[in-house]
């Protein structure tokens, strides 16, 4: 399988200026199949500008974007066929019924007429809209209107779904429903979710990126954060100087070993509660002295606050 098939998104040195002001400076990242990437940042960080560029709605000032291996700038129509986008304010037509609007969205995405009916039914079903197909969008609650916004984004079965602030303005029950919907979407699509709601990222994302002043300042798989659902995290240890990294890397659940200094390591793991005793046993077996063994938790909220405090006031 080539790189284009593995990577739904590949962006390199992507940037956008508005007049003389840089909104996004130089962004490079990729999204693989099966990932839900949370894009976090304070107000004005450049999230919406990035989503608009990734979806082909806004031309970058510099850099490259590939969608499923297709250059978005050189071949926009082919690349966009793989993208479903729900902007922060989805362009819904309140006077149209849900079915009329989804049929319109399907045709707009280039679906042949004969496939439209089935595509609309599938999208309606997946987004919990089965009973409201005949209702005018303007008469639906805010939560249902968001579902319609998501349904129009997936009606053509794109590989990549980009959702910009999908739960803003919803009540707690509606928020839960939309998050559950995003998780089901992740089974069949790669998802990029722009938000500034931290629990949303913890609830639905497999990876998180934090953006500040148009730059990526943090990136981590959720499993490596202290507050990840599966309890993934890091274990820092200080052993005698002759200790080697290889046997540590072979311990069950260890995803990566960082060498911090002679005999000093950081083990990244996916929530193995038995790791500390296993390290102690390994030290005994190998005759290493164990000076220090401590879990390191990195709470997403702490990381976000330390990287972004003061930013929103500046942006305003
Ligand atoms: N059309 C525009 N013209 C000029 N400046 C813009 C335009 N759109 C956005 N900006 C500026 O670019 C910067 C990034 O804005 P953007 O909307 O991408 O941020 P954001 O992270 O999505 O913010 P929020 O969380 O408030 O939606 C901000 O300083 C904003 O004022």
Structure report:
- Belongs to the ABC transporter superfamily.
- One of its GO terms (molecular function) is ATP binding.
- This is ABC-2 type transport system ATP-binding protein.
- A six-stranded mixed beta sheet has the order 6-7-8-3-9-10, with helices on both faces. The chain has a four-stranded antiparallel beta sheet with strand order 2-1-4-5.
- A hairpin with a 2-residue loop joins strand 9 (207-212) and strand 10 (215-221).
- The protein is elongated and about 75 Å long.
- The protein folds into two domains: 3-224, Rossmann fold; 233-296, Alpha-Beta Plaits (2-Layer Sandwich).
- It is built from twelve helices and 14 strands.
- With 316 residues, it is α/β, with parallel strands linked by helices.
- Helices cover 35% and strands 29% of the residues.
- The structure holds adenosine-5'-triphosphate.
- Residues 18, 23, 41, 43-49, 196, 315 line the site of adenosine-5'-triphosphate.
- Adenosine-5'-triphosphate binds next to helix 2.
